[in-house]
Amino acid sequence: MTEMTEQFSGGEDAHATVELLENVKLEIEKAFVGQKDLVDHALITLLAGGHLLVEGVPGLGKTLLVRALAKAIGGDCKRIQFTPDLMPSDISGSIILDVQAGKFVTRKGPVFTNLLVADEINRAPAKTQAALFEAMQEFQVSLDGTEYPLPKPFMVLATQNPFEHEGTYPLPDAQKDRFLMKLLVDYPAFDDEKEMVSRVLSGGSGAELSLAEVNQALTAEQFAALRDAASGVRVDSAVIDYAVRLAAATRTSPAIQTGAGPRGSLALIRCARARALLERRDFAIPDDVKALAVPVLIHRIALSAESDLEGLDEVRAIQNLVASVEAPRV
After folding, report:
1. Smallest Cα–Cα separation from 181: which of 66, 296, 273?
2. Do 314 and 298 contact (CB within 8 A), yes or no?
3. Which residues contact 136 (CB under 8 A, 6 or more apart)?
4. What is the pLDDT of residues 63-98, one digit of tens each?
């Protein structure tokens, strides 16, 4: 563990911070096999106080990851299956009349949790999707004129299927911009899938990996300390300049019709600080910004018609920008 904390300057506090993060990852790995990038990005999103949009085919373990993460940090996890007939009140809650008590009472919806899985979010119409706007941005829900704060921490992990478009509704740009990152999840590696199947079969007749061995690794106070540590990671002005130049480059590229707004620049720095913490540093470097440019920016841009005709996708467009924008040496 000494090697892990070499780049920290906080002494015992730094040692404790690294140990806490390692414990959380170890607990998640007891149930979630492989997909290291997905685990790291989920932790980065949680540490940065943001939300994650995951695109991938069903059966890749996205819900399992969130449930394991929730258990490891001692939080609550709820899941909403988005459907065309889902109503906004099914998410946020409603005010109902208690006949026996003779008064109106507040019925809080599933959004009042720590980790919310919004499964196949694009299957619900825009009106229902908008029910998450306030929760994701303000971390509160308004019911009948009263504001109810959400539990801390609060994170939305939304999923969508990239292939089935029948009966789906594209996410509004305003909502996509609320997600800190978007991940494109592929099938697991051969060895990881083999290990996954072996674990499931060793557990009996179950059809999926079990969370029984995952233990709570954090208290609420310790998690708050981790977030404080992430927000306290030092960011040089040159790194900030680099992040802003990357976001600005999306607005001038001929391959991109609509570029990322200022929220994109801020997201790059927020994620870079959290990644630095995962990498056992108390300072962010340009490589942190560079490594996260694709997941932070791909859902904040719209390609030009020419790019679509040429077969250029959002990932390649951002990669081209990263290659063309000079990174500072700090």
Report:
1. 296
2. yes
3. 51, 156, 175, 178, 179
4. 788 888 888 888 888 889 998 899 988 999 888 877
